[in-house]
Amino acid sequence: MANKTFTIPDIGNFDSVEVIEIHVKAGDSVKTDDALITLESEKASMDIPATFDGIVQELLLKVGDKVKQGDNILSYDIIGAKETKPAETKSSSTKPIEPTNNNDDAYDVVVLGSGPGGYTAAFRAADLGLKVALIERFSSIGGVCLNVGCIPSKALLHMAKVITEAEDASHHGIKFNKPEIDLEKIREWKNNDVVGKLTGGLSQMAGQRKVTVIEGYGKFTGSNSIDVEDKDKKTTKVNFNSAIIAVGSKPIVIPNTPDHANIIDSTGALEFKDIPERMLIVGGGIIGLEMGTVYDALGSKITVVELADGLIQGCDRDLVRPLQKRMEKRFESIHLNTKVVEIKADGDNLKVTFENKDGQFEDTFNKVLISVGRTPNGKLINAELAGVNVDDRGFINVDRQFKTNVPHIYAIGDVIGQPMLAHKATHEAKIAAEVIAGEKVEYQANVIPSVAYTDPEVAWVGVTENEAKQNNIEIEKSAFPWAASGRALSNNRTEGLTKLIFDKQTKRLIGAGIVGVNAGELIAEACMAIEMGADAQDIGLTIHPHPTLSESVAMASEVYEGTITDLFIRKR
């Protein structure tokens, strides 16, 4: 036997982490990979595993202690086999990465951009045993989604839901006082308790995976190199064998819009500096309507202007209708088939000129949110110096393995085209990383779901009715109204609808749409059903829990099969 001391290994960028649990005691027999202790930072918790087979002699810390890398955990005696070093993650590749750069300091993979696609690609590549660098221009990992997009907006939408549900409770005989809004506390909660924990957790996992995070603005200087300029204008050259472009997108700016503090984009809306009395949202898409939902709940009078004839273009009208009906009751006004002709500063306010078929009209607002879509960042990284083709709009064309026209340079996420969604980017990221590591994989997903996290939520996946008509796809559909759902009735939210679309020939599910509370959670069942080639019987004969909103998917299938008993459908 040999007496040894076991210490805290590399735990990322943390120098004072609390011990919250100890899993062993003196005299215990321990095997490699057994959890010894659990640590918890403000961002995440983690187990520290043993790298030895032996017997614990003495614990050298206690619950509540603050520890860092190198601090002693326990002393132990080795039994039998020699002590092992912490395991290195080996690639399960069928073929090792083929270097295209003879520089010894080159990374196997450099990922440009650390959004959901970027950090996923970096982490997956590291897990496969590759030497990885992750370049991010901002100080925290996570990109738009985690910092100024998906995550903070959902935090605020949750807050808005609490407020509106309290208002609706008055219809059930429960009345609450008007909420007191503390913007500073809301910002602190959003930034620290939500965004900070997630981005901090990502930084920790980057350290655990030995991913080198380089802060600065990265641009290609050749087919195997990127220059990264930090905030002090200092440039670092990063060499690579393979690269993954994951630079995302940015909000579209309307030409000739004045530079005014109260004209904001989605990032500005999430900063939450104030609650304007009257707010105009230019664009009736998902992002604008989500922000409208938040500010409406907080007391702003919301006006929406949309150039097209309906909100959320691309989604079937029967799904949008319940949302629009509720918004028409809550919002000040919704102008469809209307364009913004001019926005002029009027002191702190903004005078806006609109135009529709009846002519021009004006109105004044305290704040204007421009939300008319996003444009890719493909033209901002000197991709042409690496030989990568970028089209006039900033998109980069790729194949099913996400290779660009330069075989060792890949692209994923918003920069390769619609839909610009985080869950699409993360799926693509794993494939790109695995291809680089030698795996024989390619993109094979059939569908990508879309969700508007409004109130009610709207979610759809696969073929829509509109798409079927445009492409002459023969379909059959069924729908279940939530007015017949016991759970929806008990929630007093009966405006919902679950619709399923089947291929007329194969009878398989090829599309679905749901509008109602938590539609974004419910759509996942339809996603899996489509991917698995399920038909109405497969779904309808699956026993769903009752009473739930999820059983509306089964009931819509029963409507299609003609076996529904929760509705009376007259036989033809």
UniProtKB/TrEMBL annotation:
Reactions it catalyzes: N(6)-[(R)-dihydrolipoyl]-L-lysyl-[protein] + NAD(+) = N(6)-[(R)-lipoyl]-L-lysyl-[protein] + NADH + H(+)
Transmembrane regions listed in the UniProt entry: none
UniProt-annotated binding residues for FAD: K154, G218, D414, M420, L421, A422, H423
Disulfide bond entries: C145-C150
Coiled-coil zones: none
Active site: H546
Keywords: Disulfide bond, FAD, Flavoprotein, Lipoyl, NAD, Nucleotide-binding, Oxidoreductase, Redox-active center
Record note on cofactor: Binds 1 FAD per subunit.
Residues of the Lipoyl-binding domain: 3-77
Binding site for NAD(+): G283, G284, G285, I286, I287, G288, L289, E290, E306, G373
Keyword Magnesium set for record: no
GO biological process, alphabetically ordered: 2-oxoglutarate metabolic process
Gene Ontology terms for molecular function: dihydrolipoyl dehydrogenase (NADH) activity; flavin adenine dinucleotide binding
Entry annotated with the keyword NAD: yes
EC number: 1.8.1.4
InterPro entries: 2-oxoA_DH_lipoyl-BS, Biotin_lipoyl, Class-I_Pyr_Nuc-Dis_Oxidored, FAD/NAD-bd_sf, FAD/NAD-binding_dom, FAD/NAD-linked_Rdtase_dimer_sf, Lipoamide_DH, Pyr_nuc-diS_OxRdtase
Cofactor: FAD; (R)-lipoate
PANTHER family in alphabetical order: DIHYDROLIPOYL DEHYDROGENASE (PTHR22912:SF160), DISULFIDE OXIDOREDUCTASE (PTHR22912)
The family this protein is said to belong to: Belongs to the class-I pyridine nucleotide-disulfide oxidoreductase family.
Note: The active site is a redox-active disulfide bond.
Protein name per Swiss-Prot or TrEMBL: Dihydrolipoyl dehydrogenase
Species per Swiss-Prot/TrEMBL record: Methylophilales bacterium MBRS-H7
